[in-house]
Design goal:
By secondary structure, the chain is an alpha/beta fold. It is built from 2 helices and 9 strands, in the order βαββββαββββ. It has one domain (4-101): Sandwich (Hypothetical Protein Aq_1857, Chain: A). The chain has helices at residues 7-20, 66-72, and strands spanning 4-5, 25-33, 37-45, 53-57, 60-64, 76-82, 85-91, 97-98, 105-106. The strands form 3 sheets. A 4-stranded mixed sheet has the order 3-2-5-4. It has a 3-stranded mixed sheet with strand order 1-6-7. It is globular and about 35 Å long. The relative contact order is 0.26.
């Protein structure tokens, strides 16, 4: 299973990389955190790691380390604006539960 990007997420990534003036894409990972156990982590990629899996759609790239891929298989990364709130949304079929504030999840 792949990790996918919506058009909105890809547009947002490309715009921010252009504003930043450098970078190849975003690294998507998970780390132990929060009340449910794991949280998503995003960071710019300037120098990819040899073991990274690369997922590209709509001209934007996501880099994922193999140790995070287990938790992220099948995830769709979206970007949405709702009123005054905006941000990335993760549709992860592996999620079993999420904390009330939405900052962490369990697989």
């Amino acid at each position: 299973m792949a990790i996918t990007l919506t058009q909105q997420a890809a547009d947002h990534i490309r715009r921010h990389l252009e504003k930043r003036g450098k970078g190849l894409g975003l690294r998507l990972g998970v780390k132990p955190s929060g009340c449910s156990g794991m949280s998503y982590q995003l960071e710019y990629v300037d120098d990819p790691m040899a073991e990274d899996q690369i997922f590209e759609q709509f001209g934007a790239r996501l880099y994922v380390a193999p140790d995070s891929l287990t938790y992220l298989q099948g995830t769709e990364l979206d970007y949405a604006r709702e009123g005054l709130n905006e941000g990335f949304r993760f549709r992860n079929p592996n999620e079993k539960a999420a904390c009330g504030c939405g900052e962490s999840f369990t697989v």
